[in-house]
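so my prof wants the structure for this chain in the tokens format not the other one, which i didnt know existed until like an hour ago. anyway here's the sequence
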Amino acid sequence: MLFRTHYSSWAEILKIITPGDKSLIVSIIALSIISFVTVNHLSQPGEFLVIEVEGKVLSKLNLNEEQELAVVGPIGNTIVKIDRGKAQVIHSDCPEKICVKTGKISRAGEIIVCVPNKVVVRINGRRKNHFDVITQ
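here's what i got, hopefully its the right format
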């Protein structure tokens, strides 16, 4: 074990935490919750799905029309599915499959990127969004 503590229980650890430490911890947690709520409140629902391959716009699709699209990139296919106002990459020929693991996106500014296949899937809205990009 790299680090050892001579404290045997949480009760002993809580005894050495000062009131200032406790207020700092509570402040950080509160700030995190407020930030999360603010980002979710200010982001708007998406209306269009933009798919780019190697930096060039391949297609702009309505997010409310259910469809599947096979996108051909430098290393193979990336399959994008639109269902009930949400988009996701359901298959990619890339080795790590991070784009598939990203899951569904539906809010303006959200993005899925398949770096090895050079495919970018982005949600856009009609109005200007407060954020450039929202990551997960």
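also thought this was worth mentioning. Residues 10-42 form one domain.
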